[in-house]
Amino acid sequence: MALLDQIKQPSDLRGLSRSELDDLAREIRAFLVTNVSRTGGHLGPNLGVVELTMAIHRVFDSPSDPVIFDTGHQSYVHKILTGRAEAFTGLRQQGGLSGYPSRAESEHDWVENSHASTSLSWGEGLAKAFRLQGEQRTVVSVIGDGALTGGMAWEALNNLAVQDDLRMVVVVNDNGRSYTPTVGGLAAHLAGLRTDRRYEQTLEVAKRAINNAPLFGRQAYDLLHGMKTGLKDVLAPQGMFSDLGLKYVGPVDGHDLEALERSLEAAKNFGGPVIVHCITQKGRGFKAAEDNEQDRFHAVGKIDEHTGEPLSAAVQATWTDAFSDHMVRLGEKFPTMVAITAAMLHPVGLGRFSQVYPDRVFDVGIAEQHAVTSAAGLAAGGLHPVVAVYSTFLNRAFDQMLMDVAMHRQGVTFCLDRAGVTGPDGASHNGMWDVGICGLVPGLRLSSPRDRQRMEEALETALGVDDAPTVVRWSKEKLPDPIEALRHTEGMDLVAYDEQAEVLLVGHGQFVGLALEVAALLDKQGVRATVVDPLWSLPVNPALVDMAARHQLVVNIEDSMVAGGVGARLSHEMRRVRVDTPLMCFGIPQRFLDHASRGQVLAECGLTGPDIAREVLGCWLSQQAGQPAEQHQA
Ligand SMILES: Cc1ncc(C[n+]2csc(CCOP(=O)(O)OP(=O)(O)O)c2C)c(N)n1
Ligand SMILES: CC(=O)[C@@H](O)[C@H](O)COP(=O)(O)O
Ligand SMILES: [Mg+2]
């Protein structure tokens, strides 16, 4: 029977011998490659934390000692060790295992959100709660070198440094990479500590000899450990952590179980906040991942478990591909344009632009707040920055967009990839809040292009705005086929038109295609509809309000949250000028959506042609029968 089959909870690890532990690590790696290659997921990060996670669960007592994974994408081994191995066949699938920690799945899971750099704050808060309640529990926060470039992490470290009695262990999982190599002075410092390991290796030999010596071995080891700090001061540069007043242990080989357990035990026994700096290898044990220069298989689709080759060739271009292509062209046409990424150069589509214009791309690390205010500075200095982030991560930089960009009337363009429902990454990854927060920003203009041509046109328009934030957003989907306008009127495109239309369908972005589908279904029921693409959804075009006034029913369809979305703003503008045409708003409901495919989530939200057409027809017929039209809000 494989060792892995015997592991149902962390305590099952404690009875294993050294050789069994090594065998188990091998089995877990094979399990990850076999299973994640079939489902897709964060293969590289999890291959890098096999021994680390095993050591944590051997030294600490989860869930009494909370183990928190920053960003959460590297928690597969934790899930395996806490009895969920069988569920991996349903990883990231509807009703299946989440790709991130999930409190609904296990008492061992504490923090679910996939937004980086939060784990130290979570840990500090938990540890303070335990201390205040007299509980001798130790909190373990596992944070990657990439997540450590996020400002929140340093806010937490600043607070940890002055709490000597706080039982918290910060495990830095340092593999030197986010997707690409981690950037900035912190990364350089960690690299310095990584490379300056001579004292650790010297001591390692001494420790093993003393530890194994009969009689006074253990006491001698503890004495040596005390010396180590002294030695380290001499042999290795004092880490900034220690300068901050934080105890620092390491760097430790993150694949050496014994060294890890010794360091974690020492940290646990300190009784105060300790940094344990572990050196790991992203993608370890799977050659295709280890050799992947771009991102070490950070996140893979379905791949061949031997070669790592994708099982399905990406035949159709994505929105990201279209953005990537056009940015290179814009780079030539707009010489003052520069681009900013928050540690996601390739995922957001800036890889090609950075090859052509290496001096005009800035990777700021996982630091969206800094990215946006730095963009305000770049704009004030005469350039036009394009901030390219996933929609959900813009949430983090709302204040900077509002106060530093908009209030200072700086021309910054935000390109939001993964806008709308994303799906498999779960609730915190859906790009559903961007329209709502952007709608609060005075002067901001937002476009959701319906196809490649409209994206290109929107980007060019945005680059011409030098006194306000502009936003162009698109989904994770493949690029849709072009949808030509029948007529361009008052800044908007009519993509379906009927002189006698009673219903006005307002589509945004990819959902213009969905609105056309609804129009065709209504037509079969004898209901005539016009479909309009506002092109710029925010601020609401007064001509759209006038158009609404000329119809008997208006239907707004958007791939963002209904609450605070474009439909809500259209409703406000219609009421403001006393246009009382009934309005139905279709979009994402105001709740956290479970992981599933994008199509499944959209169906759950009723965002399909048949679903919308059925609702609209029902409302229309009620109206015709003289009943008050119910205002549909998802
Ligand atoms: C606020 C935020 N910005 C961006 C991301 C996208 N993202 C997910 S994982 C990752 C890299 C994380 O690097 P690191 O913390 O070193 O973990 P590793 O993958 O190396 O284990 C990034 C940028 C995110 N999850 N949260
Ligand atoms: C954990 C994280 O935030 C990213 O790795 C994210 O999972 C990537 O999403 P895409 O796969 O849509 O690029
Ligand atoms: Mg990393």
From TrEMBL:
The prosthetic group or cofactor this protein requires is:
thiamine diphosphate; Mg(2+)
Q: Does the keyword Metal-binding apply?
A: yes
**Record's keyword terms, sorted:** Isoprene biosynthesis, Magnesium, Metal-binding, Thiamine biosynthesis, Thiamine pyrophosphate, Transferase
Instruction: State one molecular function term (GO).
Output: 1-deoxy-D-xylulose-5-phosphate synthase activity
User: For the Transketolase-like pyrimidine-binding domain, which residue ranges apply?
Assistant: 317-481
- Its Enzyme Commission number(s) read 2.2.1.7
Superkingdom of the source?
A: Bacteria
Which positions does UniProt annotate for thiamine diphosphate binding? H73, S114, H115, A116, G146, A147, N175, F286, E368
Q: Which InterPro entries match?
A: Dxylulose-5-P_synthase (IPR005477), THDP-binding (IPR029061), Transketo_C/PFOR_II (IPR009014), Transketolase-like_Pyr-bd (IPR005475), Transketolase_BS (IPR020826), Transketolase_C (IPR033248), Transketolase_CS (IPR049557)
Question: Which SMART domains does the annotation name?
Answer: Transket_pyr (SM00861)
The keyword Methyltransferase belongs to this UniProt entry's keyword annotation: no
- From the UniProt record, give the pathway where this protein acts: Metabolic intermediate biosynthesis; 1-deoxy-D-xylulose 5-phosphate biosynthesis; 1-deoxy-D-xylulose 5-phosphate from D-glyceraldehyde 3-phosphate and pyruvate: step 1/1
Q: What does the record give as the reaction this protein catalyses?
A: D-glyceraldehyde 3-phosphate + pyruvate + H(+) = 1-deoxy-D-xylulose 5-phosphate + CO2
Q: How is the cofactor bound?
A: Binds 1 thiamine pyrophosphate per subunit.
Q: Where does Mg(2+) bind?
A: D145, N175
Q: How does it assemble?
A: Homodimer.
Spell out the PANTHER family in the cross-references: 1-D-DEOXYXYLULOSE 5-PHOSPHATE SYNTHASE-RELATED, 1-DEOXY-D-XYLULOSE-5-PHOSPHATE SYNTHASE, CHLOROPLASTIC
Enumerate the HAMAP family for this protein: DXP_synth
The similarity annotation says: Belongs to the transketolase family. DXPS subfamily.
The record's function comment reads: Catalyzes the acyloin condensation reaction between C atoms 2 and 3 of pyruvate and glyceraldehyde 3-phosphate to yield 1-deoxy-D-xylulose-5-phosphate (DXP).
- Write down what this protein is called: 1-deoxy-D-xylulose-5-phosphate synthase
